[in-house]
Amino acid sequence: MSKPFPLTLKHVTARGALALLSALFVAHALAATARAQKESPASVAGRVTDGDHGVAGVTVMLLSNDPAQRFKAIARAKTDADGRYQMMNVAPGRYQVMPYAPVYVVQGASDSWPPGTPLTLLPGDEVRDVDFRVERGGVIMGRVTDADGNPVIAELVTLMPIDSTQTQLPRRGPFDTRDLMTDDRGVYRLYGLAAGHYRVAVGQSSDEMGAVAVGRRKIFKRTYYPDVTDAAQARAVEVKTGDETTDVDITLGRALKTYRASGRFVSAETGQPMPNVVFGYGTLDPSGRGVASFGGGSMATNTRGEFQTEGLAPGRYAVFSYPSQEGSEFYSDLVRFDVADADVTGLVVQMKRGASVSGVVQIEGMSDRAAAARMLTQVRLYSYVDQSGQQGLPTFTPPPTVAPDGSFRIGGLHPGNLRLGAAGEAAKGLSLVGVEMNGAPVTGGIPVTEGAQITGVRLRMVYGSAIIRGQINFVNGTLPPGMRIIASARRAGAVGTEGGIGRQVEADVRGFFRVEGLPAGEYEVVVRVFGAGRVGMSDRQHVSLAEGGEVSVSPTVDLSKLTSPNVYVVPGNR
Predict the structure, then answer these.
(1) Which of 112, 122, 143, 422 would you label with 312, given CA atoms 20 to 30 Å apart?
(2) Sign of torsion, CA 87 530 557 488?
(3) Angle at CA 61, nearest 5°, toward 49 and 193?
(4) CA–CA separation, 62 vs 56, rounded Å?
(5) What does R_g of the chain's alpha carbons equal in angstroms?
(6) What is the pLDDT of residue 140?
(7) Sign of the torsion formed by the C-alpha atoms of 311, 314, 315 and 316
């Protein structure tokens, strides 16, 4: 083979020079067009109506669905006099479109998370008709007083739907608990409620297991309208669309007397006090083995290892060390105690030196070591120890830092069964293949004994840049409002800690989806729809992906075959 020679003008004829310049111009134009298409912004438009007329003044927000900035408001627009809105110059990506309408109920919405309507925008997309129908919500209003007739201030009012088909509670957009609290007169006003029947209650439900006051707030036994402590005797409050139900007043009993609990955290080995231990505490569940709810994570023992909790109503509790700091080498078991009619003192929580696990995260198939190092520092490791109900509190650990060479270490582990996971959300395209220990696959967790120092753990990840894009065909009916549409792509024949390489995304209002960051291989694509007590599934589609490639699929969902979850049959299975 001859060696290429440098091209100079003396080697080019006039006609050749013209052809060369034309080719360079075309190449430049194509590159510019590709860049423009890649960078071309999108737009979203729609209308908010009450069924007959446009609703003015409703703020519609576009929230990011990107893991790095999930639920961040990227754009917003307010509806005009005809209820129309438009958001321009939106970067391509995955979003949720959500009207922020506190006094309205969004029709077809569900309590699924994330809220809003999913939308996937490609470069240059001009998406129209992202419409919402709203109706004015109902109102429940009342006053809360104590046993002496004094107003109960800043008390949280709890609302519980009674109707089995009623799932939607008020959507406040940016959540503010003050909307659900009594004011300085003891008056509350809950608005934006869907039509239905509700129980209204004030106070904490202790179920004889205890309750914790926040700050200086008093604790009252949970009382339902109209002034009963048994939920079965509560009177249903009916809410009608746009109507206001008033005089839903509740009189509470005497505030419960609260007590303190105090003690020390000490070393189990030396008995010496353990300073600066971040601790948590909470009520026990009905079995008395686990913690039903807990707080903490922002309090620490003093220099003498001492701790104190306040605002404990009579009941059963536990205190424990809180695994809130990376690098901690110690843990504690639950120390249970009862509060009756006096402060509890002298509690001793023993801090034990925990087990540790160390290993490496490896990205397979990447020759660019610098790029791999950057990605490894963005990997997020997840770990928790399953104690099979012995402790009653899931033992999680803060995500450890992964070094550029992939090494990591997790300390302060309880005995039990350690489960590890990894996600490359910040470094798009990383997928976990599997977990190994000393070269052998780990499928059911890693047994951890007291104080063990486990090494030789390897988390295998692969990088992918292929894309599957799809347009769902809905046949034999109309998709019911409020249904969620999830598209899944899983690589065939791959076995890992989560059953193989795969990703899932939510399809948008157009039935469009885009699954990104997939390694090369053979994949099965399926779409599932669910909501309002109905489920369904598309046909299964099989595709072959090359690295960096993109393929299109068109799965079909037969809406006439939606069934209830307990009788659902997967299409194609017999």
Answers:
(1) 143
(2) positive
(3) 55
(4) 18
(5) 30
(6) 96
(7) positive
- pLDDT the model gives residue 165: 58
Residue-wise burial string across 137-150, b where 16 or more C-beta atoms lie within 10 A, e elsewhere: bbbbebbbbbeeee
Decide: 260 and 309 in contact? Cβ < 8 Å: yes
b/e per residue, 304-333, with b = 16+ CB within 10 A? ebebebebbbbbbbbbbbbbbeeebebbbb
**What are φ and ψ of residue 69, in 5° steps?**
-145, 45
Q: DSSP alpha helices (H): ranges in 58-132?
A: none
In 185-333, beta strands by DSSP E: 187-193, 196-202, 223-224, 237-239, 244-245, 250-251, 259-267, 278-284, 291-300, 306-312, 315-321, 330-331
Q: What pLDDT, on a 0 to 100 scale, did the predictor assign at position 215?
A: 61
Q: Where do the DSSP E strands lie in 124-206? A: 126-127, 132-136, 138-145, 157-161, 187-193, 196-202
CA-CA distance, 423 to 409, in Å (whole number)? 17
As a three-state string, the secondary structure of 353-395 is ECEEEEEEEEEECCCCHHHHHHHHCCCEEEEEEECCCCCCCCE
Cβ(556)–Cβ(539) below 8 Å: yes
Reported as a single tens digit per residue, the pLDDT across 105-143 is: 888 665 556 667 889 999 999 999 999 999 999 999 999
For residue 313, what is the DSSP state? P
Identify the pLDDT of residue 288: 75
Model pLDDT, residue 13: 44
Strand partners, 514: 469
Paired sense of beta strands 42-49 and 132-136, if any: parallel
Residue 384 and residue 479: Cα distance in Å, rounded?
39
Q: Reply yes or no on whether the pLDDT at 498 is more than 50.
A: no
Query: Residues near 219 by Cβ (< 8 Å), separated by ≥ 6?
Result: 203, 204, 211, 212, 213, 255, 256, 258, 311, 313
Please tell me the least confidently modeled range out of 132-146, 302-316, 560-574. 560-574
Contact 435/442 with Cβ under 8 angstroms? yes
Among 25-29, 95-99, 204-208, 214-218, name the most confident range. Answer: 95-99
